[in-house]
Amino acid sequence: MRRYLPFLSLLAAATVPLWIQDPYFLNAFITTGIFIIAAMSLNLLLGYTGQLSLGHVAFFGIGAYTSALVSLGFNVELLGGIRVVHEPWPVWTGIVIGILVAGFFGYVVGKLSFRVRGAYFVIVTISFAEVARLIALNWVELTQGPLALNSIPPVTLGLPGLGYYDLYSKQSYFYLVLAVLAVSYVVISRLVNSRVGRAMVALKENESLAVSVGIDVTRYLVLAAVVSAGIAGAAGGLYAHYLKIIDPDVFLFVYTVTMVIMVITGGKGTLAGPVVGGLIFGFIPVFSRSFLGPELQWIIYGIFMILIVFVLPQGIVPAIEKWFVSPSPKPAALPAQAHVVETP
């Protein structure tokens, strides 16, 4: 049963637009799904390699801006007076290029920052995210700066000769986000259950022992960073084409905090953890907004998070697994053999 649970959950999620017609709740499902994808990518680093990236939103924003610019086109002057003119390309091309560009920067950051550990790695990732935000804010000719990139085209699906379909409706975009979420889940699942994934977990559990048996630390950590950044870039591309407007606020630190909360409360190092944590903390503000003011909404949000951390320190998913998966019975102890003591 546990083996088929992800497939059954996917089928259940596919029925959501059939019984929820309210655009407000569909919008909440779409945005929550996008951030669940981003949280899953962060979980690959935090949960399976033990590396806390507090600048993960940089890859999310890079994917968003790259996909938007490829789809809109641009005319910008580089150093030396060289002018680069790019005509608009199809949206799906922009999303793919956004994934590749985010993955490239994941490789660069991984190569540079995985030479250090702990607080130094956290500082490097935060600094990278801030540099990306400042570039988006100040390179006005390319990104429009604080004026934002607007009129971003919607995702278009189709093939030449068969026609094209623009995903304007929330129902159609919901299924697109669900499909990307499912593909990301499969990619991460196949990776962490492979030899590469076992090497990543070994590095997290005991790096010295892993190195002693021949595991290349930098190689596997950089690979995790590249895959993680690419998936975050895909989430950013979906976000840009859904909102149809993007500005430097996409690099705000609060988005990284949201991803970390989803991973920690759901259960880091588990495939379902970011999904469960994302659904809970994505919908707490949605449901509380109807009867609480803005200040009380965030108070409830914080109290709920603190309760989960204190009551379920390993996260929701590991706690559920511990409750419902019965431990294997211990073998019965063999009866002690009687010893005959001969008296002289």
UniProtKB/TrEMBL annotation:
GO terms for molecular function: branched-chain amino acid transmembrane transporter activity. It is a multi-pass membrane protein. The keyword Transcription does not apply. Its main location: membrane. Keywords: Cell membrane, Membrane, Transmembrane, Transmembrane helix. It is found in: Cell membrane. The chain crosses the membrane at residues 25-46, 53-74, 89-108, 120-140, 173-192, 220-239, 245-264, 271-292, 298-320. Signal peptide: none annotated. GO terms for cellular component: plasma membrane. Pfam families: BPD_transp_2. This is Branched-chain amino acid ABC transporter permease. It comes from Pseudolabrys taiwanensis.
